[in-house]
Every structure is written in structure tokens, then in C-alpha cells.
């Protein structure tokens, strides 16, 4: 079954139930209303794009859901466009790479991000203003039909059709276009539902952008499939307002990146999260301090999961019944994970670090129009995540960082993430860190730590030496006012690395006497 067909059946089943509480616009719409508005908008799209793809650049809201559903109901595929940085360039790039013109957006968003109206853009406000009484009557008549009759009138297709095109975050390299099939996302929803207990009684706090797979699958498709109420808020960085939305709407489920959840933790008041029964984090490493903070302040156990855009996204997740803090949980029942030695290609033994490979129905078929990237990442049905990790005796997966975030020093592989973990435990709670590799003419490369506050470097290094070998110790510390992040909340490693490299040129590295001997 295709996702929009699943939505039609869910909307008919839960017709009178509140589907979306849009905190930005004040809209409170039932499942019946969402179906009606999506069908009306789908009809308005006729003739605007010959077929294929339609861009969607709308913040997390009821409007974004209408637009995404309408594109699918009209027989086209939504291309979700990142508006957080370089929106106009991202639009033109998507139009060029996927050969389409129409982009659904909103005037309010364009004004807020100071983005010009470019060729092909259609604002939802204008489409809404153009809806006539006849359009409403036709839409109402169509929405009143049975689910089977509505689905029969939808353009034909199957589960192998594209459900969406997303772009990777680009935190390390240029974003790649990832087409996901209906079957991919549906398999991921089914896999998650087998290990995490969701129901139509849940209220999902949707605070993540739908142009990222984490937000699209978990904040939109999962609750629509289950018949939940979805509370939308367009800006995940408006920490206090998100906390207030959780409190007011009595949300029971919330997901987020560690950066966002740290912001909510700091800005929340006692009782804000009293109704939350499931809090799950992913997309970046979760620190022990963050887990401890949520427990101490709100008595909530923060569960960590792991996924990628290419896997729709969930690969593994901790659950209330099976939780091993520090790990990213057990793989979903319909996902296979293989740990492969980075040099020999042999399968790793238990507790042996290797490359994380994934196979299953939620894995994409390949990148859009990029044979080279596809051949590098997909081999014999296995997707190479580019991450490193290990599986323990109880099949919990432990993520230890990107392969690119390993540095070979003196013949040994040094995990920059491991260095960060040790450093993070020694820093004050309000100080963040990121460890990067900087080219060194004499040594080939050296490890540099970026921190957001001045520290006693000699003392920190002495303490780090108790847990790390000498070759893994940072040779220099650079203080940055803040660590740049992507719109998803993940650290922007490319920008951080550039800033650090610029800074080290202005300051000599730590002298040999400052680095503790082995």
C-alpha cells in the first residue's frame, strides 16, 4: 500500500478525531478536514506540473502536511526542500537535478527567511484564496466517499513508486538526493511498531522539519498511520515555545536530536513534560549528561536510536523494555546489520569495531541520478552507512562515529568521537566540544579540540591521559563562541573544521611539555 492510501484509510477511520493542532497558526483540524483540504489542493495542482516531481518548501505545520499529501494524491512525488540555509539555491538545485518546476511554499516563510520568489514557486496562500465554492463542493463530495472509492480515483501506482525525495544533511559533504519508495517508509513504520508501543491515543509533538527524514517519517507518517493527534511547531529552536506546546497539548511522544533536546531541557519548567511517556533521540550522539539531565529534572528516561536518510530512517532503537544506555539499541526486526572489518571486509566478531552495513526493505534502491555514490554505498543489497560501531553480546548496537571521524596515527585507528566522549565528561555542563582533524605538514595530521569556553588545557590533558593513549590526545584547543549546527540539530562538521583550521593558523599548537607522557 502507498502512504497516501494508508492515510486515506486512517482519515476515514478517525474522521472526527483531532488530527493536527498547529501551534503557529492556531488551526485545529480533524482527520476529515485534513483529507478534505488535501483532496482540494490535489485538484488545484492539476495542470501545474506535467508529472514527476513537485517541490515542497513549507515549515512543519498543517499546511506542510496538506501540501505533501496533495502532491501524492495528485500522482506526483514530493521533493522536500531545506529552507534553513540557502533556500533559493536549494530550490534551484532541486529543480535542476530532478527536472521539475513547481515548488509549493508559503509567503510567510519566504518573508521570514528573506527568500525571493523564484520561477516555479506557488504560494499556498494564493492557492487557498483561489479555492471557489465549486472546488469545496467537489472536494467534499469526493471526501465523503468510502476509502476504497477515494483510492480508486487516485492515479494508479504501487508501493515501489517514489514516496518522497529527500536530501542528505551535508554535514560532511555535499547533499545527495535520496528517493525513498512507499515500501521503504512503510517497512520502517512497521518495524518500529513491532518494538515500540504506539497507539491512536498518543499525541505526537512534531517539532522536527519535514525536509529531514527523521521528522517526515516519525513526526508525520507514523502518527498519521496510527491515528494520533499531531502537535506541530515550525521552529525547533524556539525552545520555550516547544516546551509550552508539550504542556498545553499534553503530548505523550516526542523525538528530537540531542541539540534540540538539550535546549528544551534547559528552558523547561517543572511539569512541562509530565505527560510525555516516550522521549527518543537520534541523528547525533547523546551524552550521558543529557540523559542524566532529563532524568533528574523530569524523571524521563531518554531513549537513543540510530538511523540514516537512506534507511527511511530507523535502523535500531532502545525501548522502555530493552534499553542499554550508551548504545543505540537493538536493530529493528526487519533490519539486518552487519559489522565489517574496515580493511579486510570480514565480518566482525562480537564487540569488535567495524563498518556498519544495513540490509532490509527500508533501505533505498540508490541515490537519484548518481551512479558513483550508489555504487560506493550499495553492494549486494547491503548499504554502507559510513559509520563505525560494534554489536555486543546481547545484540545492542554501539555507534562509535563516522569512518571519516577516525584518524590513523602511528598505525592505530583513533576515534575522534571517543576523544570527544572523554573530553565532554571533563568539561563544565555549559561547555560543548567537537574534535577534528587538522592537516600538519610535519605529522600529516593532528587532533584539535574545539570548545565553547576557555579551559585549563594542561589539567584537561592530564585527566584525558587517564583514559586515552598519548596519540589520541588533542594537540591544541581552539575556543569558538558556539559550534555551528545543521537545521536538524546535528553538528556541522564541515563548518567547524574550517573554523578550526583558520584558527590554528593564528596560534601555535600545544607544546610537547603540555602533553602528558605515556
Mean pLDDT: 91
> What overall form do the CA principal axes indicate?
globular
Roughly how many Å apart are the termini? 60 Å
Number of helices: 17
Sequence stretches where pLDDT stays below 50 over 5 or more residues = 510-518
Number of strands: 25
Tell me the fraction of residues in β-strands, as a range. 15-25%
Radius of gyration: 24 Å
Write out the strand line-up for the largest beta sheet, numbering strands in chain order. 2-1-10-9-11-12-13-14-15
* Class inferred from helices and paired strands: alpha/beta
Largest sheet: 9 strands, mixed
Helix fraction by DSSP (H/I, runs of at least 4): 25-40%
Question: How would you portray this structure in words?
Answer:
The chain has 518 residues and is of the alpha/beta class. It is built from 17 helices and 25 strands. The strands form six sheets. The chain has a nine-stranded mixed sheet with strand order 2-1-10-9-11-12-13-14-15, sandwiched between helices. Strands 16, 17, 18, 19 and 20 form a five-stranded antiparallel sheet that branches. A four-stranded parallel sheet has the order 4-3-5-6, sandwiched between helices. A hairpin with a 6-residue loop joins strand 13 (302-307) and strand 14. Helix 1 (3-13) packs across helix 2. The radius of gyration is 24 Å and the shape is globular. Mean pLDDT is 91; it is low at 510-518.
Question: Can you tag this structure with a few keywords?
Answer:
single chain, 518 residues
Can you give me a brief rundown of this structure?
With 518 residues, this protein is an alpha/beta fold. It is 34% helix and 23% strand.
Amino acid at each position: 500500500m502507498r502512504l497516501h492510501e494508508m492515510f486515506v484509510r486512517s482519515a476515514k477511520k478517525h474522521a472526527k478525531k483531532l488530527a493536527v493542532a498547529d501551534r503557529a497558526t492556531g488551526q485545529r483540524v480533524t482527520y476529515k478536514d485534513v483529507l478534505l483540504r488535501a483532496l482540494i489542493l490535489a485538484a488545484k495542482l492539476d495542470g501545474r506540473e506535467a508529472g514527476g516531481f513537485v517541490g515542497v518548501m513549507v515549515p512543519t505545520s498543517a499546511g506542510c502536511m496538506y501540501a505533501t499529501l496533495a502532491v501524492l494524491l495528485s500522482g506526483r512525488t514530493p521533493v522536500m526542500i531545506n529552507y534553513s540555509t540557502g533556500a533559493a539555491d536549494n530550490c534551484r538545485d532541486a529543480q535542476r537535478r530532478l527536472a521539475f518546476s513547481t515548488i509549493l511554499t508559503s509567503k510567510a516563510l519566504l518573508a521570514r527567511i528573506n527568500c525571493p520568489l523564484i520561477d516555479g514557486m506557488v504560494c499556498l496562500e494564493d492557492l487557498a484564496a483561489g479555492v471557489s465554492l465549486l472546488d469545496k463542493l467537489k472536494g467534499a463530495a469526493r471526501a465523503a466517499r468510502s476509502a476504497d472509492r477515494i483510492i480508486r480515483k487516485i492515479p494508479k501506482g504501487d508501493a515501489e513508486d517514489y514516496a518522497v525525495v529527500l536530501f542528505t544533511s551535508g554535514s560532511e559533504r555535499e547533499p545527495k538526493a535520496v528517493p525513498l519508495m512507499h515500501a521503504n517508509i512503510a517497512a520502517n513504520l512497521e518495524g518500529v511498531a513491532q518494538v515500540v508501543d504506539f497507539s491512536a491515543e498518543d499525541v505526537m509533538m512534531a517539532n522536527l522539519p519535514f525536509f529531514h527524514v527523521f521528522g517526515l517519517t516519525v513526526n508525520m507518517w507514523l502518527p498519521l498511520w496510527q491515528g494520533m493527534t499531531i502537535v506541530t511547531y515550525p521552529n525547533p529552536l524556539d525552545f520555550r515555545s516547544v516546551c509550552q506546546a508539550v504542556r498545553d497539548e499534553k503530548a505523550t511522544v516526542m523525538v528530537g536530536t540531542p541539540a534540540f533536546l538539550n535546549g528544551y531541557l534547559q528552558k523547561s519548567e517543572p511539569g512541562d513534560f509530565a505527560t510525555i511517556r516516550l522521549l527518543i533521540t537520534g541523528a547525533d550522539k547523546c551524552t550521558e549528561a543529557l540523559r542524566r539531565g532529563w532524568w533528574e529534572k523530569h524523571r524521563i528516561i531518554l531513549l537513543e536510536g540510530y538511523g540514516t536518510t537512506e534507511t527511511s530512517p530507523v535502523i535500531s532503537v532502545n525501548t522502555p523494555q530493552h534499553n542499554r544506555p550508551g548504545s543505540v539499541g537493538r536493530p529493528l526486526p526487519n533490519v539486518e546489520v552487519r559489522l565489517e572489518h574496515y580493511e579486510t571486509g570480514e565480518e566482525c566478531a562480537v564487540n569488535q569495531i567495524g563498518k556498519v552495513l544495513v540490509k532490509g526493505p527500508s533501505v533505498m534502491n540508490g541515490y537519484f541520478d548518481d551512479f558513483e555514490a550508489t555504487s560506493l554505498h550499495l553492494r549486494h543489497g547491503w548499504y554502507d552507512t559510513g559509520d563505525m560501531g560494534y554489536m555486543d553480546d546481547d545484540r545492542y548496537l554501539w555507534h562509535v562515529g563516522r569512518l571519516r571521524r577516525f584518524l590513523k596515527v602511528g598505525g592505530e585507528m583513533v576515534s575522534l568521537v571517543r576523544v570527544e566522549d572523554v573530553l565532554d565528561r571533563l568539561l563544565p555542563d555549559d561547555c560543548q566540544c567537537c574534535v577534528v582533524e587538522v592537516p600538519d605538514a610535519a605529522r600529516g595530521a593532528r587532533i584539535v579540540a574545539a570548545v565553547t569556553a576557555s579551559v585549563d588545557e594542561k589539567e584537561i590533558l592530564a585527566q584525558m591521559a587517564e583514559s586515552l593513549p598519548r596519540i589520541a590526545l588533542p594537540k591544541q584547543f581552539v575556543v569558538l563562541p558556539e559550534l555551528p549546527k545543521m537545521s536538524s540539530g546535528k553538528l556541522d562538521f564541515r563548518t567547524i573544521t574550517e573554523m578550526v583550521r583558520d584558527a590554528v593558523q593564528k596560534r601555535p599548537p600545544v607544546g610537547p611539555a603540555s602533553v602528558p607522557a605515556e
